[in-house]
Amino acid sequence: MCRWGALPKMYSHYGSRGIVLATILQSYAQGRNVWGKESMDAMWSAATTKCYGGGSSEVEFLRSLSQLVGEFWTQHVSVSTSAHSPGVSSSRQVSKEDIFSAADLAAIPRGYMVMLASGEEPLLVNTVPYWSRPYGGEVGQKPARRLNPIPVVEAEVDGGAGPVSFTPREGIRIGQP
């Protein structure tokens, strides 16, 4: 885990420049433990794409995610008969229900994830692991390479390093505006 203290502030800064940051955590609580509740909430809010792959038991987070996924209209019909009068009586009730309850989200099976992207409706995604693809056996056997490597200025990054700036030509600069 890279504990970069300035990361929450960088989400908004880089986002305004069209630079996409990706943060992968095992749980929302892991992010709260590293950056604090307010900073983690700010990062989650600023993220333009949010993915949840199941396995969480954090009720507050799951309820919040359930609200983001949304609701749907459902219709309930009830039919009854009476021993004292002939005929059938029916009633119809329309109500909203969560698309996924917190319990549903906690129980998402392996191989699925919920994806929320800005300006789009939520998606339930069927993930396909690389090892099940035709090229799966090759992954990990070849060293990774970039077609156009970007120069990077090496530096240790921690909470007190200051702002980070990035330009493709100059690399990453720590402690400079």
Walk me through the topology.
Layout (H helix, E strand, L loop, with lengths): L6 H10 L11 H8 L1 H10 L2 E4 L6 H11 L1 E11 L6 E11 L3 H5 L5 E6 L5 E4 L37 E4 L3 E4 L3
Antiparallel strand pairs: 1-4, 2-3, 4-5, 6-7
Helix pairs in contact: 1-3, 2-3
Short description:
The two termini are 25 Å apart. The chain is built from five helices and seven strands; from the N terminus they run αααβαββαββββ. It has helices spanning 7-16, 28-35, 37-46, 59-69, 102-106, and strands at residues 49-52, 71-81, 88-98, 112-117, 123-126, 164-167, 171-174.
- The secondary structure category is alpha+beta
Distance between the termini: 25 Å
The Rg value, from CA coordinates, equals 24 Å
Mean pLDDT figure: 79
Identify low-pLDDT runs. Answer: 148-177
How much of the polypeptide forms β-strand, as a percent range?
15-25%
Number of strands: 7
Strand order, largest beta sheet? 1-4-5
User: In this structure, how is the largest beta sheet organized?
Assistant: 3 strands, antiparallel
Helix content: 10-25%
Please tell me what the overall shape is. Answer: elongated
Number of H- or I-type helical stretches: 5
Order of helices and strands: HHHEHEEHEEEE
List keywords for this structure.
177 residues; alpha+beta; three-stranded antiparallel sheet; two-stranded antiparallel sheet; elongated; disordered C terminus
Characterise this structure.
- The model is unreliable at 148-177 (pLDDT under 50).
- The chain has 5 helices and 7 strands; from the N terminus they run H-H-H-E-H-E-E-H-E-E-E-E.
- The strands form 3 sheets. The chain has a 3-stranded antiparallel sheet, with no helix packed on it. A two-stranded antiparallel sheet has the order 2-3. Strands 6-7 form a two-stranded antiparallel sheet.
- The chain has helices spanning 7-16, 28-35, 37-46, 59-69, 102-106; strands at residues 49-52, 71-81, 88-98, 112-117, 123-126, 164-167, 171-174.
- 25% of the residues lie in helices and 25% in strands.
- It has 177 residues and is an alpha+beta fold.
